[in-house]
Amino acid sequence: MSNHALLDNVTHADLRVNTIYEKGHGFDVNSARVFPVEFTQLQMDYPLFFVKSAETGHFETIALLGFSEGENLYLRDGRWDAAYLPSTIARQPFLIGFQEQDVDGIPTKVPVVHIDLDHPGVSYTEGEPVFLEHGGEGPLLERVTSILMAIHEGHESSKSLSKLLIGLELIESVNVEIEFRDGSRQNLSGLYTINEDKLRALSADGLDVLHKNGHLQTVYMMLASMPNMTRLIDRKNSTLET
Amino acid sequence: MRFAREELTALITNIREIDDYNVDRVFHQVVSQSYPVVLRGIASDWPLVKKAQESDQDADRFLREYYNGTTVHAFVSESDIEGRIFYTDDLADNNFRKISTQMDSILDQLRENRNSRSAQTIYMGSAPIAHCLPGMGAENSLPHEGIEATVRIWIGNKTTVAAHYDAMDNIACVCAGRRRFTLFPPDQLENLYVGPIDFTPAGQAVSLVDLDDPDMDRYPRFAEALKHAQTAELEPGDGIFVPSMWWHHVKGLDDFNILINHWWRQCPSFMGAPYDALLHAILNIRDLPKSQRDAWQKTFDFYVFDAKEENVRHIPEGRRGVVGELDEITARKIRATLRNKLNR
User: B92 and B141 in contact (C-beta within 8 Å)?
Assistant: First the structure.
């Protein structure tokens, strides 16, 4: 469920955001869309994968947060149990939208802030105010605005990464089969990762293209994130009875 | 009380015409005097004007050759607004729709309307030529070397834009169709019954009086404004200088009108929009107690409206801050301060 509205300081004057990192507060997702610019921080805590967008056919990058639907293993004791929050989590309940405006006579799509009024974090009594007393932007909104801009730019760099890696044939699908300590099994499908063999065999030209587009680091950060898969399984196991 | 169109026309004097303009220096020439002038034939050798003098179809074809396919904004109205780009009667909305479209579909529609004598209003205003008709400006604008002018094109059928001012100086040249300009000096503000300044039909506040049929019972002071009005009917190739802040009512008289205008400012680009200062003053000054407001009026006069070097001569030159000379650096500092202070 979502109810998106263009944020404005009159309609939403008294709006607050009360972020609670617990089950049932809007963060029950088992993956988060992530962008190359944040991979250095993300690879410390999250396993990073590609998924294929049914809409665009592009490969998009995600951080895996859990195994079954709605399972977020980073929600722990009312806090987000990692040093860095993916920007698509940190932005909530705000979203970026576009409005066509006239800028010096030229029709221009201008990014504007929207809010999901049905997000459990939206409140009129608890949490951090969105606007200052007289309608100025509060610190929360200033922070979120810059996160939204980074996400906006992230979409572009994500597309270029996808095109580049498809071109170099560096993406392969992975089939993950996990057995948890209670004996239950889970099969994860639809995930893709970097083909390490092909990366090792990549020609100097191929490396040069990756490097020049700023994605050589992206690729290695994705590989570096793989051990986090074991840690994610540990997180899950710690919630299970033996 | 109502005026007939002929009576009105008889009331209004003609805008002064000059024929000793120098097309290469016209921007400098017109600003040396701060009143409007008509520049007959100043654009008569532009290729677009020549095409338009052949036929509407030739002008239409000429535009399509340059059009790069980019999206443009336009106003359309199916209803019977008689071309008056305005508000609905209750001022709750515009009486037209704003659309994003292609310039060639505007041209298609205009052509179709010419043939079918449709009452549909179409108006594409102030589209930058460099944005939608790249290359066309070279031979179809006035030479403006050394002047930072934005060159815009306006295409439509019979349309009327109510009297409004622009903050920029303007030389507008009619390329196709006839256009009537009716101008009022800036000091006629109080007699023009201006509508809301922050919700406007096309970006600028407009006079609510219908110049073609003024309701003198409702707008009695408009009779005074008419005494100061000046008018001119322009043919393809004619230009007009509309000084900054002069109210201008503009009427396209034919089924196919094209106008190209040049907007420019006589100030450094680091200066912002005076309108922003007006909003700021409404927010922070207008509703003060009268004694305080009067004091601020004097303060504004001292630092802004009658600012002169002698007012601050007692402060050592390097220590004058924002009341000293305004340059790029000071402008940056003011902008940063205002931005911070606004956020509360």
Answer: no
Sign of CA dihedral B2, B3, B5, B6: positive
Give B150's contacts in chain A (Cβ within 8 Å).
104-105
Q: CB neighbours of A72 closer than 8 A, spacing ≥ 6? A: A23, A27, A28, A29, A30, A65, A66
Question: In A85-114, which positions are buried (b, 16+ CB within 10 angstroms) versus exposed (e)?
Answer: bbbbbbbbbbbbbeeeebeebbbeeeeebb
pLDDT value at residue A241: 78
**What's the gap in Å between the CA of B125 and the closest CA on chain A?**
8
Supply the mean pLDDT for chain A: 94
Please name the residue of chain A whose CA is at the shortest distance from the CA of residue B72: A107
pLDDT single digits (tens) B293-329: 999 999 999 999 999 999 999 999 999 999 999 999 9
Separation in Å, CA B135 to CA A234, B239, B325, B340: 65, 21, 39, 42
Nearest of A15, A33, A32 to residue A121 by alpha carbon: A15
Predicted TM-score (pTM) of this structure: 0.88
CB contact under 8 A, A134 and B344: yes
- Percent above pLDDT 90 for chain A: 89
Q: What angle do CA B136, B142, B145 make, to 5 degrees?
A: 100
Identify any residues that bridge with A98 across adjacent strands, giving them in sequence order. Answer: A111
Those residues whose C-beta lies under 8 Å from the C-beta of residue B160, and which sit 6 or more positions away, are B82, B83, B84, B85, B211, B212, B249, B250, B251, B252
pLDDT of residue A78: 87
Cβ pair A132:B127 closer than 8 A? no
pLDDT at B10 (0 to 100): 72
Residues of chain B scoring pLDDT < 70: 1-6, 9
Each residue's pLDDT tens digit, A192-239: 999 999 999 999 999 999 999 999 999 999 999 999 999 999 999 999
CB contact under 8 A, A137 and B150: no
Q: At what angle do helices B47-54 and B56-66 cross, to 10 degrees?
A: 140
B126: nearest CA partner in chain A: A105
Strands B230-234 and B13-14: parallel
Question: A100 to chain B, minimum CA–CA distance in Å?
Answer: 9
Give mean pLDDT, residues A178-191. Answer: 92
- For chain A, positions 35-74, list CB contacts with chain B under 8 A: none
CB atoms within 10 A of CB B327: 10
Interchain CB contact of A134 with B (< 8 Å): yes
Spatial contact of A37 and A147, defined as CB atoms under 8 Å apart: no
Nearest-neighbour CA in chain A from B281: distance (Å): 16
Tell me which chain B residues have a C-beta less than 8 angstroms from the C-beta of A132.
343-344
Task: Name the H helices within chain A.
Answer: 39-42, 87-90, 139-167, 196-200, 204-212, 216-224, 228-238
pLDDT at B303: 98
pLDDT above 70 coverage of chain A, percent: 99
A107, B100: Cβ pair inside 8 Å? yes
**B100 CB near a chain A CB, below 8 Å?**
yes
pLDDT confidence of residue B6: 66
